[in-house]
Amino acid sequence: MPRNPRTGAYQPFKLKPLPNDAHAIGSDFQRYLSYYLGRFQGCSPPYTYEALAYTLRDRLMVDWRNTWNAQLEPGNRRAYYMSLEFLIGRAMGNHLLNLGIKNETDQAMLEFSQTLEEVMEQEPDAGLGNGGLGRLAACFMDSCASLKLPVMGYGIRYEYGMFRQHIDNGYQVEEPDHWLREGNPWEIERVEYSQRVHFGGRSEAYHDALGNTRIRWVDTQDVLAIPFDMPISGYRNQTVNTLRLWKAAATDEFNLNEFNAGSYIEAVRAKNEAEHISMVLYPNDSSENGKELRLRQQYFLASASLHDAVRIWERNGENDYRKFADENVFQMNDTHPTIAVAELMRILIDEKGMMWDAAWVITQRCMAYTNHTLLPEALEKWPLGLFERLLPRLLEIIYEINARFLRQVSLKWPGDIERQKRMSIIEEGEQRYVRMAWLAIVGSFSVNGVAALHSQLLRDGLFHDFYQLWPEKFNNKTNGVTPRRWVAHANPGMTALISTKIGDGWIGDLSQLAQLKPYAEGGQTDFYADWRAVKLANKQRLAALVKADCGVDFNPAALFDVQVKRIHEYKRQLLNILHVIHLYLRIKNGRMDNWVDRCVLIGGKAAPGYAMAKRIIKLANSVAAVVNNDPDVAGRLKLAFLPNYRVSSMEIIAPATDVSEQISTAGKEASGTGNMKFMMNGAVTIGTYDGANIEIMDAVGEENFFLFGLRTAEVDKLHKHYQPWQYVEQDSDLREVLELIRSGHFNPCEPYIFDMITDAIQSPHDPWMTLADFRAYVDAQDRVATAWQDTDGWTRMSILNTASSGFFSTDRTMLEYNREIWKLKPISS
Ligand code: 26Q
Asked: 380 C-alpha to center of ligand 1: Å?
């Protein structure tokens, strides 16, 4: 950077924004393709994508730098979103939308005999997440940029993202997703901001210059964290925020020491071990797995990010750490990065020389924790032995946090030993564990759930003791999704149609969708017809995808009934499959009253170690094979299992869906966010009283939502005396369905493979109570069928769902986080 010759201060370069006309875009594209990538016209497609990505990145660069500088002005408070997952998907379409240069780019590409669509299809999904939690982080980043909030994301730059799912003979097969193989044109590597992260070693006492006893962490094995920045553009607002992803690398002396000692093989092994940390995303979304590498990833992220935030803050000449909490807040996405609580204490005490009490005040004022699950098996806990070996100094700090915390508990509830045991950050027993959720709650000033019901269940159940101690920490922040990706980008037809009626202000302020409500009322025949035409075109697009990926013909005139999400027993894909079998039996038995033609789509990945979930996928595929090929069915019912469900598939699925399946066991789905994407795109929900479904129903009205099934309290009560065979006895439809599965009808060549499924749902210990909700579900589906036959009535419901979805924008969610937790002021670049 040039210096001002008089004052010596750095002067930023004056950068001119690049021209955005088709000609300029085209010539930049050609320059990148030929001069940078060394490829020429007619070259293979990944290079056209890459050249166009550089062309667009250039057009983000000035705003990116200006946003960065503006946010770093001294005194500006900033938030950091810490997450092991950012499920971004593709970036190109999103940046084009945000920059408002889609038409110009389209035109430019035509000059090269390419359609923009084809080029965008080349981009691999950045699949750095499992599902809801990771996608939520990506939607949050989008909204923060669009609202000009000074928020930076911190995550891991996994070499391998979420595995690719193949279906082989109906079974899931996992394949590694080397998404970085062709490079990532969006990212910028910033080696100059690398951080050193310590592992292993031991802690040692020493006396500082003033004679105080202090602790240092010595004999560590260090790993380098190298940041890679991804631009996060705001919607037409000249703001570009940053997602900073860390890659692990071996330190130099790591190599040198070992090489000098002559143990070449050992040196290479050690180097490999260091680089392993950011190699692969754990494909597990609902149970902790206690693997050492996972704990390494968590500490790697927390330590590198906190040091980076401290460095950024110190760069303004700050060194009064009492002010650190005034200017920095960290939002922890579930317990995954929660070791940050102890790491910030370590930084303040061991590295900055602070005393415990002062450091603890700062830490508790900086940290905020979001919980995403109520399932006990998903609560993270780490064996003490592992912690001790990998992070000895951090374990000492956790012990001290716990000792002081338990003193506080015993002051409030003297003699209540049981309560102290329950609340201790250390779980006692044969194996002792660190409970990460407890550490998060104790170390944070804010603890939130992700939907109203979920937050209430946290207060009343799982976190009740903590709620009694600190009611003021607990709050709710109902999730959302970004309307830019999930409507404006994914559903251009509907976007254009809505905008002819109410303008396009709704894209940046989704509450404006309420202005559509009058158009849902009677007499709007043209609008109804247009609405249906858009949906039909979207269904044709999905039908083409289903044909290509499943070989199944979906008739766009039929009802599209869709359930896409991770495969898990609590989400009850099984209930859906039982219903499909029931419909199949109705055809076979000639019970065609109130019939509507249906295409049922199921998609989602199973954790590789989750045997039951994998068997559910096999069942879906086996039932599909029978139903789709039975001549008696004659196209009236189709079932397809879509392989490799991911962000870019949802962009085609949500706009084409008529019925959104949100059928989890009540009290188990924290929020759900797919439910919101479907609603925005005009699907009607069939759902249980669970997660954000409840708020969706409140927003759209009960008459525009198909509610069924047990409520949370009923589920809890039923557990004590659940007798699934009663439902089987009482319900001949259910009996026939179960008998058909048991008979081997769907698996003639692989006998008994579905016994584990029928056994599980008929067990009195089935926590998911699938059979208890079967009848209510079938009846609700029958109401769906009735409603579908009233074409105008359905269209009205569809419009009302979109019109009522304004609340579920992450813009609203982020404004709530900001008003109640972060307290940032929007920054103009
Ligand atoms: C934990 C330990 C070791 C390895 C992996 C994990 C792990 C990883 C991911 C545990 C859980 C997850 C993801 C959880 C998740 O996606 N939860 C969903 O979060 C959404 C956003 O809040 C909610 O809408 C969903 O209801 C919730 O299930």
From this structure: 11
Ligand 1 centroid vs 134 CA: distance in angstroms? 8
Q: Using CA positions, which residue lies closest to atom 15 of ligand 1?
A: 133
> Does the active-site annotation cover 571?
yes
Q: In angstroms, what is the C-alpha Rg of the chain? A: 28
The DSSP H or E segment spanning 776 is helix 774-789
Cα–Cα distance measured from residue 167 to residue 170, given in angstroms and rounded to the nearest whole number: 5
Ligand 1 centroid, distance to 162 Cα (angstroms): 13
Residue 476 has φ and ψ, to the nearest 5°, of -110, 140
Residues 6+ apart with CB under 8 A from 306: 330, 340, 343, 344, 347
Please confirm, yes or no, whether 565 is among the known catalytic residues.
Answer: yes
Catalytic, 372? Answer yes
- Residue 208 to residue 193: CA distance in whole angstroms: 29
Q: Which helix (H) or strand (E) holds 420?
A: helix 417-423
Nearest to 336 by CA among 147, 599, 156, 529: 156
Q: Which of 251, 657, 665, 673 does the annotation list as catalytic?
A: 673
What pLDDT, on the 0 to 100 scale, is given for residue 259? 57
Which residues neighbour 57 within 8 Å (Cβ) at sequence distance 6 or greater? 185, 186, 231
Give me the catalytic one of 565, 614, 646, 796. 565
pTM over 0.90: yes
Tokens 């910028």 correspond to: 188
Q: What is the pLDDT of residue 691?
A: 98
Q: Which of 57, 489, 539, 571 is catalytic?
A: 571
pLDDT at 9: 60
Positions in the chain short of pLDDT 70: 1-13, 253-262, 288, 829
Tokens (6 digits) for 737: 């369905």
**Structure confidence by residue, pLDDT tens digits, 702-718:** 999 999 999 999 999 99
Q: Cα–Cα distance between 505 and 825 in angstroms, integer?
A: 22
